Amino acid sequence: MAIDCISPSSEAKDLHLPTKTLVFDASVINDNIPDQFIWPHDERPRSDSHLLVPLIDLQGFLSGDPVASLEASRVVRDACRKHGFFLVSNHGVDCRLISDAHHCMDRFFGLTLSEKQRAQRKLWESHGYTSSFTGRFHSKLPWKETLSFRYSAEEGSSKVVEDYLVDAMGDQFKQSGGIYQEYCDAMSTLSLSIMELLGISLGVGRNCFRDFFEGNDSIMRLNYYPPCQKPDMTLGTGPHCDPTSLTILHQDQVGGLEVLVDDKWHLVLPHVNTFVVNIGDTFMALSNGIYKSCLHRAVVNSTRTRKSLAFFLCPSKEKLVRPPKELMETGREYPDFTWPMLLEFTQKHYRADMNTLQAFSSWLQQSLLNTSTPS
Ligand SMILES: C=C1C[C@]23C[C@@]1(O)CC[C@H]2[C@]1(C)CCC[C@@](C)(C(=O)O)[C@H]1[C@@H]3C(=O)O
Ligand SMILES: O=C(O)CCC(=O)C(=O)O
Ligand SMILES: [Fe+2]
Fold first, then answer.
1. Pocket flag, ligand 1, residue 242 (CB < 6 Å)
2. Residues whose CB falls within 8 Å of the CB of residue 199, separated by 6 or more in sequence, listed in order
3. Residue 254 and residue 269: Cα distance in Å, rounded?
4. Is 237 close to ligand 1, i.e. is its CB under 6 Å away?
5. DSSP codes, 241-304
6. What is the C-alpha to C-alpha distance for residues 318 and 301, in angstroms, rounded to an integer?
7. Is 126 in the pocket of ligand 1 (CB under 6 A)?
8. What residues does 337 pair with on adjacent strands?
9. For 42-81, how does the pLDDT look when each residue is reduced to its tens digit (9 = 90+)?
10. Domain layout of the chain by residue ranges
11. pLDDT in tens, 110-127
12. Catalytic site residue 118?
């Protein structure tokens, strides 16, 4: 398929103007923050209040209690129809594993730049280390460093995470690799349970989406936000909807995640041993637009480093993203696609924002028209 036919938005143009010389070292550039990190006035942080994100205690659902399951699915349904964000507690993930995963982040991001660059992300790839995307975007740079890697729930892929970290960073990262492998396995298991809940809540049965994501090919991302001397002019992660299917985020106690609801930015307060779950664009398409993928961002602060661990659930490569027929009785919101098509769109043509799914759908439909019209 031709992918160079997108009519470029300002963000898409931005993708092709990298700043090669800028090096992100917060301890050095904090004294004189380069313009590329300063966000336009109307996009700067100014949070209005805290969002009362519904908290779902998963214990009853996970142990098969029908009354608790029905109640949980009602709360999920209301949250996902409105903004797509909810919190989960008693999720079955060992709190020791969560704190180990945070400690391993300190270990990785505490290395020197050249050591971290052993895992350097290549320009069009979605895994590896990057410091504020200085080689990918030329403006509105995020004040963060990230390390992303692929996770696969396919049989025979039980060590992809561990192998990736050891290959990139050497044997001293074997222990961290094992911890992130275990963490991703736990996230995959939790996301399949949440998929059951989403299926029940949409009236398509508990196995519909669970089966769809069984062999998921997902992305794990470690977000590291150093303190910033101008937190009111910069952003850790700019406003976007996740293009992926479901995000399970663990933020540390510093806080900084914000969600746009009713045209206002709301801080999502951190809770110990609780995950923030949100619907991404791919699930919004799978639910035929019934469940919302909502705009969010991460702000930074002037005193404390902030960390978050994001597991982005994605379908395996060959799966066609098409809603179950029960959800299409009154028509279709989005065309069929596969996850690699949307991923490529966000890596090569479009910087993920609040319009990614709409821009992608129009681009896909246009490409289909172009290929079906004889020249
Ligand atoms: C598929 C993806 C693209 C981004 C990472 C992710 O795995 C899910 C969310 C996307 C992102 C976080 C949205 C904000 C802009 C972005 C560039 C970032 O700040 O990290 C996005 C990621 C990306 O690498 O394109
Ligand atoms: O760090 C956070 O709280 C949010 C990060 C995020 O939205 C993302 O990585 O997609
Ligand atoms: Fe996100």
1. yes
2. 205, 206, 207, 208, 209, 210
3. 9
4. yes
5. --SSSEEEEEE-TT--EEEEETTEEEE----TT-EEEEE-HHHHHHTTTSSPP--EEE---SS-
6. 41
7. yes
8. 321
9. 888 876 676 678 999 999 999 999 999 999 999 999 999 9
10. 26-372
11. 999 999 999 988 777 778
12. no
Question: Of the residues 77, 221, 306, 351, which is catalytic?
Answer: 306
Spell out which residues have Cβ within 5 A of ligand 3, the ion.
242
- In the DSSP assignment, the letter for residue 50 is E
Asked if 301 and 253 count as a contact pair (C-beta separation under 8 A), the reply is no
- Determine the length of the chain: 375
Cβ atoms of 357 and 243 closer than 8 Å: yes
**CA atoms within a 13 Å half-sphere pointing along the CA-CB vector of 296:** 25
Homologous superfamily assigned to 26-372: B-lactam Antibiotic, Isopenicillin N Synthase; Chain (2.60.120.330)
Percent of the chain with pLDDT over 90: 74
Residue 287: name the closest of 218, 320, 241, 333 by CA. 333
pLDDT at 126: 78
- For the stretch 173-205, pLDDT in tens is 999 999 999 999 999 999 999 999 999 999 999
User: Looking at ligand 1, which residue's alpha carbon is closest to its atom 16?
Assistant: 352
**Roughly how many angstroms between the first and final C-alpha of the chain, as a whole number?**
16
- Taking CA atoms only, the protein residue closest to ligand 1 atom 21 is 352
Mutate to test the pocket of ligand 1, among 216, 346, 347, 360 (most ligand atoms within 8 A of CB): 346
Beta strand 296-298 with 257-261 is: antiparallel
252 lines ligand 2 (CB under 6 A): no
pTM score, whole prediction: 0.92
